[in-house]
Amino acid sequence: MTTATGTLNKIIQGIFDIFPDLDGLELDGETTLGKIPDWDSMAAVNLQVFIEENFKVQLPLDLLNENARIAEVVKFIDDPIALKAAMRGSAYS
Fold it and tell me: What confidence score (pLDDT) does residue 90 get?
């Protein structure tokens, strides 16, 4: 299993890969996805695919909304129980 810090770093790097024009923007676990310039549904799909390809975890798009913190995304990746609990409250339950 990947450590939370390793997952966080990989997610942040993935965001910079998806949005190559983010030079100078500082991202950390407390950053909400909506703070990323040009965050929209297509960006969420791109991050969803990145997560599935790199972590073999399928996150519903409604968990990748503009209010989601990067740390929450990391928790969903690293903790299947947290993901299941979040999905029970999502449109995919």
Answer: 62
